[in-house]
Amino acid sequence: MTMRIQMDAGGVGEIKADTVVIPITRRGETPKTLPQGLSALDRRMGGRLSDAIESGDFKAGAGDRLPIYGPKGGDIVRVVFLGLGDGEGIDDARLREFGGRVGREANREGRGRVALVVPPGAGLAPEKAVPLIAEGALLGAYTFDRYKSGARKNKRAPVKRLRIVTVRKVKGLAGLRAETKRAVQIAECQLEARDLSNEPPNSIYPESLAREARKMARQVGLKCSVMNVTEMEKRGMGAILAVGQGSERPPRMVVLEHGATAARKRKGTLALIGKGITFDSGGLSLKSAGGMLEMKHDMSGAAAVFGAMKAIALLDLPIHVVGLLAAAENMPSHMAYRPSDIIESASGQTIEIVNTDAEGRLVMADALDHAVKTFKPDAMIDIATLTGAAMMAFGPHATAGLGNDDGVLTELQAAGDAVGETVWPMPLLDAHTKAMRSKVADWKNSGGPSGGVSTAGAFLQGFVGDTPWVHLDIAGSGMSNIGTPLHIGGGTGVGVRMLTEWVRARSE
Ligand code: BES
Ligand code: MN
Ligand code: ZN
After folding, report:
1. Segments forming the whole domain that contains residue 79
2. Which pLDDT belongs to residue 496?
3. What is the CATH number of the domain that holds 245?
4. pLDDT at 449
């Protein structure tokens, strides 16, 4: 399903649509009058809108919904009131979630042409509300159904359209259109990240992920190179190779690059590194059946980097950005790496494998080292579904953040807050590093279950040198089956908006 969003200012009286959605706010009490500027629409609906609102039945709480059917033979089939809650203090999150409900509404069977009317009113200034509602609508309307027979037979997925119409003329309409377009582009990149995350592991494996990255790079004008096993061997990337060696599907390291010009590089170089375990069985330290169930999502960090790099290219942000996808499949087999193996990473540091299920940090170690040595970034972010501990700590509600630079961590928290993705700091202490030291090698790959987010982070720190760096653990926030107005379930695409916003802020 795709959705196109179009924005118009003024002209609600003549609106052509089968379904018209109207946000209704309350002011401490149940609204008793129709929002301003809707009387022409009310007349076309035979006065049923004012009848409904004057009855006082509709309380306009956030999430409340009231469909009102038009007179027979009229050209509007239905108007749907959607409650926005109290008009005081409508913040970005509420507008985005409201957008999500509008997206769901547009997605219902038989909705035809859908228009959302934005009446003047508390918290609904179009300059602020329209881009957020558009973004929310795309996220809320998202479904992953391409493997259902119906969707597969119907080769051309129906394109739903949503028109957003403001009651009043808008000052600076061109600016608002551009702003809305940007919000839509970024949200679409997030949906691509969701798609990649939701694809089953027999469809997305390291090679096919690399193929998708190549295709995307060609579309938007990113540089893209893909390392195969031979090239990784040449570079001594023993960690990602060890993780991938048990699988029939060989690992890949994908390098995407935006703005590789002298002028852009003067603005600085940023690196984004994503964990791309296309399926995590645990390897010989095999996961339980239940624990394995969601592990097609174990490449959600790579999907976030994929989506963010695409958005960065589309917005043509004026800075040099490198995106790495560290892709491997973690499988048990007679070829698989073993607990007790000692491997050598690209950095030259050795790692004792104590648990083959702690594979994410291994592929990330080689990717971080490559980013540091090849591109010498001014700042580097890694994003990974790294530990069950992060999921236990935060559930899907926050991303764990830690690193070696409080300034960059603060920047990421600010970027997250600006786009509605929460980053919560976790400690990275010398004691966590100590827990990762091996008796027989430079490192071991697991410090045990306690303090799991921080010990994993401490391990990664061993591979970033003195590059300012932040690690984001999205094991909780990257996938969820708790439905929200913005997400029905599966991969969330978390990180795309935040990373794009962080790069944008850095490029100013
Ligand atoms: N991919 C998992 C982490 C994960 C768990 C992500 C649940 C999403 C939901 C990771 O590779 C893993 O298995 N981590 C282990 C590390 C342990 C062996 C040190 C974990 O967290 O249990
Ligand atoms: Mn694992
Ligand atoms: Zn994993």
Report:
1. 4-167
2. 99
3. 3.40.630.10
4. 83
Q: Where are the beta strands (DSSP E) in 12-124?
A: 19-26, 65-69, 78-86, 114-118
pLDDT, residue 153, reads 62
pLDDT of residue 121: 84
Q: Indicate if 152 belongs to the active site.
A: no
Instruction: Say if residues 362 and 445 touch (Cβ distance below 8 Å).
Output: yes
Same structural domain for residues 223 and 295? yes
Pick from 138, 167, 196: which residue ends a domain? 167
Clarify whether 287 is annotated catalytic: yes
385 lines ligand 1 (CB under 6 A): yes
- Do residues 130 and 216 share a domain? no
- Are 54 and 196 members of one domain? no
* pLDDT value of position 122: 76
Same domain, 382 and 499: yes
Place of tokens 């560290």: 326
- Which ligand 1 atom sits closest to the C-alpha of 285? 18
| Number of folded domains that form the chain | 2
Domain endpoint, select from 108, 134, 167: 167
Query: 449 C-alpha vs ligand 2 centroid, how far in Å?
Result: 13
Q: How far apart are CA 502 and CA 91, in angstroms?
A: 21
Provide the CA 122 distance to its chain's centre, in angstroms.
Answer: 29
What would the pLDDT profile of 69-111 be if each residue is shown by its tens digit? 999 989 999 999 999 999 888 999 999 999 999 999 998 888 9
Q: Which CA distances in Å does 349 have to 128, 338, 343, 353, 378? A: 50, 18, 9, 13, 23
Q: Among the options 296, 361, 444, 504, which is catalytic?
A: 361
Which of 387, 444, 460, 471 for mutating ligand 1's site (highest number of atoms within 8 Å of CB)?
Answer: 387
Below-50 pLDDT ranges, the chain = none
